[in-house]
Design brief:
With about 450 residues, this protein is an alpha+beta fold. It folds into four domains: about 110 residues, no CATH class; about 100 residues, PAS domain (Beta-Lactamase, 2-Layer Sandwich), CATH 3.30.450.20; about 70 residues, Helix Hairpins, CATH 1.10.287; about 130 residues, Heat Shock Protein 90. It has a five-stranded antiparallel beta sheet with strand order 2-1-5-4-3, with helices on both faces. Strands 7-9-10-12-11 form a five-stranded mixed beta sheet, with helices on one face. A two-stranded antiparallel sheet has the order 6-8. Helix 1 runs antiparallel to helix 2. It is elongated. The mean pLDDT is about 80. One of its GO terms (molecular function) is ATP binding. Its EC number is 2.7.13.3. InterPro entries: BphY/WalK/GraS-like, HATPase_C_sf, HATPase_dom, His_kinase_dom, HisK_dim/P_sf, PAS, Sig_transdc_His_kin-like_C. It comes from Massilia violaceinigra. Its main location: membrane.
């Protein structure tokens, strides 16, 4: 069996010393009259010999325990300071050994957790430092507005020629940066900007996020170079545009060439009866080709919106005069603020798409709602809806599932919505059909 704790021995020593002290007190009170003289002498001598031994024994037992307690206190203080490298040793196999073992196990767990945390922090710092996105964390608190708290390697290369940026003011760094970056930061929000000219022109995307860190307001700035990606996308887009235009031109020019040849042959033969029909077909194909080219021109040359106050009843009445629609719900009493010509073009495209979806004309509806600082304009139909692939690509320019479609209707509506500071979403309706929602700031 494991021996009991030394405290039990200490208790015995304390009881012995207490007994001896009581005997001494009794002797001092003169109780020696009740005992023979020699016995009193023996007791006194015993007390004189045993008491020092008891004190020495008691101190010898208590000293290592007190030393252990001091060591425990020291290791706990080290844990508070983040140092988990200490462990304790107790030679005896008693209850204190269990306490020391539990203490050492706790230290091992804390040490492993600290090591794992340090490794994660090192991994995260390595990833952030080597990311191609320039990252700047700026302290916007009242005491230090614009002070750079953190900058990764990309930010140092882009804004400081590799020098450390922490501790400097953002305004000082921007004093040496390109004017395009300064203008982009002054505009606020996210967006693209170009720096440099000619072959040295570079395109960047600026993203900004604000948050509180340790009770202080901070702003995170992310700068990403998009030149190569945009050029690659530009080449792909031009290839797609050329394919679409070539296809449409071939579809129109080939019949025109054939009809012109047939008309010339009929004139040569003196058979002019079919010439009006041939000329009518040529005119129809020419108008279609003209409409196709004008659609591309409108998309490429969309001007900035001219915001006006537009009452909803008059605006919707003008739409209804051009395409069949049903108004769902009541129109807002407050006038809207947008470019009426551009918004009319966008909604006409959406309403025509709704009619071409196979929906009954009476189920093509327009609903306008205003709530929470936003304006929601919804065009709904009961057509075939869209599968996931079409929903993903429907707003991409030149994407179309129609044989004669240009893929510009939804793309132009999206361009107009974004020019007004809004966006467009697509979603299938319960029971069939599609809802196209234009969300604009109220």
């Amino acid at each position: 069996m494991r021996p009991s704790l030394r405290l039990s021995l200490i208790t015995r020593c304390s009881a012995l010393v207490g007994t001896l002290l009581v005997l001494g007190i009794l002797i001092a009170l003169g109780l020696d009259r009740l005992l023979p003289g020699r016995l009193v002498l023996v007791v006194a001598l015993s007390l004189a010999c045993v008491a020092p031994l008891a004190v020495i024994t008691l101190r010898a037992q208590i000293r290592p325990i007190l030393s252990l307690f001091r060591a425990l206190e020291g290791t706990v203080t080290s844990y508070k300071d983040g140092d988990f490298s200490f462990s304790l040793h107790w030679p005896q196999n008693d209850e204190l050994a269990d306490l020391v073992a539990a203490h050492n196990a706790l230290g091992n767990v804390l040490r492993e957790q600290r090591l794992a945390l340090v490794q994660r922090e090192l991994l995260l710092d390595t990833m952030v430092q080597n990311t191609p996105v320039a990252m700047l964390l700026v302290d916007d608190a009242a005491g230090s507005p614009g002070a750079i708290v953190y900058a990764n390697l990309s930010a140092r290369q882009m804004l400081g020629q590799g020098r450390k940026l922490e501790g400097q003011r953002l305004s000082e760094i921007l004093g040496q940066a390109s004017p395009a970056l300064v203008d982009a930061l002054a505009r606020g929000g996210d967006g693209l900007f170009s720096a440099g000219e000619g072959e040295e022109e570079e395109v960047y995307h600026l993203a900004r996020r604000s948050f509180s860190l340790n009770g202080r307001k901070h702003e995170l700035l992310l700068l990403r170079q998009l030149t190569h990606e945009l050029r690659r996308q530009e080449v792909q887009t031009w290839k797609k545009v050329i394919r679409v235009i070539s296809h449409e031109l071939n579809n129109s020019l080939a019949p025109l060439t054939s009809l012109a040849h047939s008309g010339a042959e009929l004139v040569r033969r003196g058979q002019t009866e079919r010439l009006p029909q041939i000329l009518e077909t040529i005119e129809e194909r020419t108008r279609h080709l003209e409409s196709f080219i004008l659609g591309y021109a409108r998309f490429a040359k969309l001007p900035s919106p001219r915001i006006e106050q537009c009452p909803w009843p008059a605006f919707v009445e003008r739409l209804a005069s051009q395409v069949a629609l049903t108004v769902a719900g009541a129109l807002p009493q407050e006038s809207a603020r947008f470019d009426p010509a551009q918004m009319e073009q966008a909604l006409l495209n959406l309403l025509k798409n709704a009619h071409e979806s196979g929906s009954p004309a009476g189920d093509v509806a327009l609903q306008v709602r205003q709530a929470h600082g936003t304006l929601r304009i919804e065009v709904m139909d009961r057509g075939q809806g869209m599968n996931d692939a079409v929903l993903t690509n429907a707003l991409v320019p030149f994407y179309s599932t129609k044989r004669s479609g240009t893929g510009l209707g939804l793309a132009l509506a999206r361009e107009i919505a974004e020019a007004h500071g809004g966006r467009i979403t697509l979603g299938n309706r319960d029971g069939g059909g599609l809802t196209v929602t234009m969300i604009l700031p109220a």
